[in-house]
Amino acid sequence: MRKQVTLILAIVCTAFVYGQKMKVVDGDFSFLKGQTQINVEFDYSNLKLYKDKRPETEYIKTRTAELEEKGRGKGKAWAKKWEAAKELIYAPKFLELMNRYLTEDYNMEFDQGLTDAKYTLIVDATWMYPGYNVVVMRKPAKLSTTMRFIETANRSNVLLEITGKNAPGNRYGGTFSNEDRLGEGYAKTGKTLAGMIKKKIK
User: Which pLDDT score, from 0 to 100, does residue 171 have?
Assistant: First the structure.
């Protein structure tokens, strides 16, 4: 019995530690009612990484140099993979989960390039921790974002701002790819935001 209680407490504590916190900073969801298309943009210009909050440019430069020392071309290949993940992993993961929970029930589509949509969602990545997987030990990635819904034709008009803190990122069975782990953080962010929208506009 004591072992069962300990196990349950461990699960609860793990969920608490790795759960994402989302907070409405300003605005409300009322403008989303009746909308069928929302344009989405992803911004990395404010991105910081790790506990020391190093700028992305610094992180890329340092990591590229480290890998180049291990083998010529490895650093450059990693830098290309890191940049490509933004379009090939992060954006698709976020959009997939947003649309999975909102398109069928509310006929609301979120996608890039919908420039005729009345509103645009900007997903601003503010902090990342890539996590790690070294076979015997692993730690999930974490992602923090600021999400702003703006009027597409008047970008200074912010209707809703939400912060997402420490979205956990990991794949079932684990992965050795930092980009895949961070992609799961984007998926979790999309799922949580979609859940908030469903509650507010139903």
Answer: 62
- Taking the C-alpha atoms of residue 122 and residue 94, their distance in angstroms, rounded to an integer, is 12
Listed as own residue / partner, the contacts of 101-108 with beta carbons closer than 8 Å and 24 or more positions apart are 101/191, 101/194, 101/195, 101/198, 102/194, 102/197, 102/198, 105/198, 106/198, 106/201, 107/36, 108/32, 108/35, 108/36, 108/37, 108/38, 108/197
Query: Is-contact 103 28, C-beta < 8 A?
Result: no
**Size (the chain), residues:** 202
15 within domain boundaries: no
Q: Structure pTM?
A: 0.86
**And the tokens for 63?**
């990591």
Among candidates 132, 49, 128, 37, which has minimal Cα distance to 90? 128
- d(Cα 103, Cα 109) in Å, to the nearest integer? 6
Domain of residue 139: give its range.
Answer: 21-53+86-201
CA distance 29 to 196: 9
Q: Please identify every stretch of the chain with a pLDDT value under 50, giving residue numbers as ranges.
A: 1-18, 172-173
Distance of CA 114 to the CA centre of its chain: 20
Residue 62 covered by a domain: no
CA distance 90 to 110: 14
